[in-house]
Here is the input.
Amino acid sequence: MSTSTYPIAARRTQPGGIEPPPVHVAVIMDGNGRWAAARHLPRIAGHREGARAVRRTIEAAIRQGVEWLTIYAFSSENWRRPADEVLDLTGLLRQYLRTEIAELKASGVRLRFIGDRCRFDNGIQSDLRDAERHTTHNSRLNLTIALSYGARAEIVEAARAAAAAIRDGLLDPAKFDEQVFAGFLATAEMPDPDLIIRTSGERRLSNFLLWQAAYAELVFLDVLWPDFKAEHFAAALTEFARRERRFGARPG
Ligand code: IPE
Ligand code: IPE
Ligand code: MG
Here is the structure.
């Protein structure tokens, strides 16, 4: 168990008034299916193009000095999609892990995965473990990929683990506070997201980082995920810089 090391207001205006980039950007990549449909292509073509957009986003995040990037790739609810699409998506994930990890490792990216990985086959689970292990000493960009992830399930799991710790006498209920609880979440060692970007024009969180998003700035873009480029990432960061974050306090 560990707790977030970042204070809630991690951002400070630098000398000269230049806003630093958000520490942690999270992305709900959406619109692959619509991108494919608009081209009369099968949905898998949209997902494949979406994987290229992931690569561009990682590059953009590194270039912009973002330290943490979290990408929502597959939700716990996405298992409800037709079996052939689930098979296509898990196949693409397997391929992505086999082809991209070496390069991510060489670029200084540290990989983490959050979500219920037990639902994937043993081959994928072992690839996920390897990717985390092989990049554990990297620090240029902390990339977290949410796979089979659902925030409500994450919160319930954390509550269950906390209850067990209390039952076993390892945790004093009187000392159980927000920070302690956050230490039981899958994101225990991560700062909360400062900015959450969702593409495709949908304006919802779809069960993504519900606890962690308490004070995140939300930016919804009309671009479909396969068309997402560095300029869209930059535009979201510009919008973020314009926002006044108050964290419940009075504007300064
Ligand atoms: C996002 O694209 C990728 C996943 C959710 C896996 P979608 O597949 O949701 O695409 P749309 O929303 O149907 O266009
Ligand atoms: C959210 O997209 C999940 C991911 C991006 C992985 P969905 O397309 O599954 O969300 P809904 O169904 O539109 O809410
Ligand atoms: Mg969608």
Summary: The beta strands are 24-28, 68-75, 109-114, 141-149, 195-198, 217-220. The radius of gyration is 19 Å. The chain has one domain: 21-150+193-242.
